[in-house]
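Lab notebook page, bench 4
Experiment: in silico fold of construct C2
Operator: M.H.
Input chain length: 134 residues
Purpose: comparison with the prior construct
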Amino acid sequence: MRKLVLTPIAILAASLTMPGAAALAADPPPERIAPQRLVCISATPEIIARAGAKVDTAVLCRWTKSTSTAFGSYKLGRRSETLPRTLAFATTDANRTWFLDTRVRKGATYTYRVATFAGDGSMLAVSQPVSVTA
């Protein structure tokens, strides 16, 4: 298993076998698509430096806040050419609506999804996939 490097903003909780990974991998029925908008960009050196990350390449993902009263957390999933299955790899609390992915390779394309989860761990909704080249 690869060692995770935790930066102040990188990962609140991370695991390759995080609960909810299957939910992020599956295409939800249309009525379950989250209304929040997910945007991911290749992070500029300035963004990386402000985050305190010690990497050359990163992807910044931002999304709009969930308005569900049952809402508890967000889980971010990612897939790539070398890993075609979406894995949940980061969890943020209800107040954080961004994530800086520092475990990317320059020039590689990644596809992200963000899912909202209730306090009891059940998935409320998942965003449409968004692709970005690091």
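Observations: Residues 7 and 104 are 15 Å apart (CA to CA). The helical segments are 21-25, 45-51.
Next step: discuss at group meeting.
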